[in-house]
Design brief:
- The chain is of the alpha/beta class and 97 residues long.
- It has helices at 26-30, 32-35, 52-67, 79-87, 91-94, and strands at residues 5-10, 13-20, 41-50, 73-75.
- It has a 4-stranded mixed sheet with strand order 1-2-3-4, covered by helices on one side.
């Protein structure tokens, strides 16, 4: 696994790549206002690994968008991330929204 997180915006989708964990999420969090300005989807299909703090960040992004009155969906959720989402009972927030 690589030890970094990167991202790119393609139209209204933010694509996350690499590792989303407590050691890599700070730069993404610090740029959230700019990154979330005109997106409606976060694609997580290129994430190699997500820990519970990475999942918490995704939940915070969802909450941030809801406070602004915008919808945010997640695409590319793999089996490992889905297991983590289920473990924390976040299906309604992450998947079913």
């Amino acid at each position: 696994m690589s030890e970094c997180l990167s991202w790119e915006k393609v139209e209204q989708t933010l694509i996350l790549k690499g590792i989303l964990d407590r050691d890599t999420l700070l730069p993404l969090w610090q740029q959230k206002e700019k990154l979330m300005a005109d997106i409606d989807c976060i694609n997580v299909s290129q994430l190699e690994y997500v820990d519970s703090t990475g999942l918490a960040l995704l939940v915070r992004f969802k909450h941030h968008m809801q406070k602004r009155g915008d919808k945010l969906r997640f695409s590319g959720i793999d089996e490992r991330l889905n297991t983590l989402i289920t473990l924390y009972d976040l299906q309604e927030i992450i998947i079913d929204s």
